[in-house]
Each structure stands twice: as C-alpha cells, then as structure tokens.
Amino acid sequence: MVLVDASTRWSHVVLLSTRNAAFAKLLAQIIRLRAHHPDHPIKSIRLDNAGEFTSKAFDDYCMSIGIDVEHPVPHVHTQNGLAEATIKRLQMVARALVMRTNLPISAWGYAILHAALLIRFRPTASQPFSAYQLVTGYEPDISHLRIFGCAVYVPIAPPQRTKMGPQRRLSIYVGYESPTIIRYLEPLTGDLFTARFADCHFDETVFSSLGGDRKKDFPRERQEFSWFVPTLSHFDPRTSQCESEVKRIIDLQNVADSMPDAFSDIAKVTRSHIPAANVPARLEVPNKGHDAANRGTTTTLSGGMVEAVAPQRKRGRPLGSIDTHPRKKRATMSMNQYWRMLRCLK
User: Fold this and answer.
1) Number of domains forming the structure of the chain
2) How high is the pLDDT of residue 321?
3) Domain named Integrase catalytic: which ranges (predicted)?
4) What is the largest CA-CA distance in the chain?
C-alpha cells in the first residue's frame, strides 16, 4: 500500500500480508501524521475503488475529524495519477535494485521499502527540494546509504561468540530503519535482523546470495513482478476483519485521548515524593533572608521607590544564608595583640 502527500510528495509504503489489513495500516498512518504535524491538518484523502478501501467505520471517522474521502471513477486511473505515478516509480527503482544483486525475485518487498526511502531524498518536478527536506526542514544526509544487497559483516552477539572464534558473520544488506540501524538477511535462512550501523563493516563489491552456493546450480532468469495479480484475488477475499481492525484502532485512539495514562503501567512509573501539582510560580524567601535584606542598604529608584539591597559576603551569598562548604576564617586580633606585634617588629 502506498500513501502519498500531494503537497510534499512524501510517500509511505507498507507491505500487506492480506488485503484486509489495508485500512488498519492507513488509519494508523493518518493518526501518526495528525500527531506529528498538528499545524498542518489533512483536508482530503483520495482512495482507490478497490474492495479493500471501503469501510463504513473509516468513513465515519474521517467525517468526524473533518477529512473528505474521495473516490475516482472506476477504471479511470488518471484521476488517481499521483499514486499511480509513485507506484510506477517505485517499481522502476526496485527492479534495478533487485537485478543488481544476487537476491531472488521474492525479495522484492525489501527492495520496494528501500526504493521508497531513496525517492524521499530526490527532488521532484513540482518541488525543487526533496520530500525529506520539505517535511523535516533539514537537508538529507546520505552518509549512511549503502548499495542494496551488498555484503555486510555484522558483529556476533557476545553470548554466541568466543574469544578465539570469529567476531563477525557475513550477511546481506537490505536497507535501514534509521540512519543508525540497518536491516540485513541471514544468507542461510533468509531471516531478517537489525544491527547498529556503526558496528558493521560493508563490502559494496561483493553481493552474496541466499542459500550459500546452492543458487549457482540454477540459471538466473529475468522475471517481472507485480503487486496485484487478478487471477489470485479469490485467495484473499474481503472479510469482516477489515472493519473490526478499523473499529479497534478508533476505540484505542478514543481511550488514549480520554485517558492519557491508560496505556502506562502504573506499577513501573516512578512518581516524585514532592507534590508538583498547584505549585506557586514564585517561592517565598525564608525569614533569614528577609532579616538580612532589612539590615542591608537601601537604594532610591525612579519615582521615589526604595529598594532594599542585602549585604553580600565575599563569595556572593547574602547574610543569613547557609554555607554548605564554609571557608576557614582568620581570627581577629585584639588591640593588645596588635601592640605586641608592633613591639616585636621594632
């Protein structure tokens, strides 16, 4: 599923295991956008006429928050041209990524997610700046980008390694979650894991394959992949799961809005012993401070007002304050001791 912002061309791509989860992912992204950008409300949403994009609960939710839901004419893709153009662009970039590596065509999902991240860093025909810069306000930093499908040596977890054994293992780079976290595949099993970018060593000249050397026995064929196959649509029919997921997310948002602490584990929350509620904006000065200020000098201000100035100690503390680290004070000499000292000097 592809969600595109018409003003900044920011695209959000989600991989779906079933068509019934499309509306739940869409609603979650709308809630996230409204929370991250409260000053830029969503005015309208244009959806496809597919069966997975019809939900009575979603329409009621959009109507309650002031979002217009639009549907183009059936079989007229030009009315939804922005989303269709984004899908075509994603396919072109993802196809080049997959063909450059030794990964099978079944790894197109990772290529699509990586292509969506790359497209955010490029300006479009309607905007001289990239979508990333328009949304965040910062110029994109591409120092963390690496070639898709290249070899990466990730550190082995301390419980799984020995002092004299290997400290890293060979993996396949398939994108990143953030500039500091990468995604990689285990070559033998194909499982997806994450690692810290600073702990990894990349070799962008080597492209490993899944399954080790077993792939060399089979010829590599150029195949085309598609996101939608009409002949297989009957294997994923629309069920009541779509409507129930939308209602569940709306109910959770209502609970979160009414009770902000409803999702917090109260037993694990450390509360301060100081009552912070209804605290006055200005604290009262202790009596010692007032007495010291009264014994200080007075300054006449403009308008005839008189301001008391507290006498200050050598270290800047007013009289009457408590010195947590007092200095050693030199005892004062009496007059007899003073005359004795003068006689000794003579």
Assistant:
1) 1
2) 60
3) 1-148
4) 120
> Residue 251: pLDDT above 60?
yes
Domain that holds residue 189: 2-217
The secondary structure of 234-291 as a DSSP string is GGS---THHHHHHHHHHHHHHHHHH-TTTTS-GGG----SS--TT--SSPPPPHHHHH
On whether residue 172 sits in a domain, the answer given is yes
Contact 75, 50 (CB under 8 A): no
What H or E segment, with its residue span, contains residue 177? strand 168-178
Strands 11-13, 2-4: pairing kind = antiparallel
The two structure tokens encoding residue 34: 């409204």
- Alpha-carbon gap, residue 68 to 148, rounded angstroms: 39
CA distance 316 to 338: 30
Q: What does the DSSP 8-state code read for residue 51?
A: G
CATH of the domain at 196: 3.30.420.10
Q: What is the enclosing helix (H) or strand (E) of 299? A: strand 297-300
C-alpha–C-alpha distance, residues 107 and 192, integer Å: 11
SS3 94: helix
Top-ranked range on mean pLDDT: pick from 190-199, 226-235, 244-253, 257-266: 190-199
Residue 164: helix, strand or coil by DSSP? Answer: coil
Looking at 19-23, 122-126, 137-141, 300-304, which range is the least confident one?
Answer: 300-304
311 lies in a domain?
no
| 315 in any annotated domain | no
Residue 5 has φ and ψ, to the nearest 5°, of -85, 125
CB neighbour list of residue 169: distance below 8 Å, 6 or more residues apart: 153, 154, 156
Cα(184)–Cα(205) distance, rounded to whole angstroms? Answer: 16
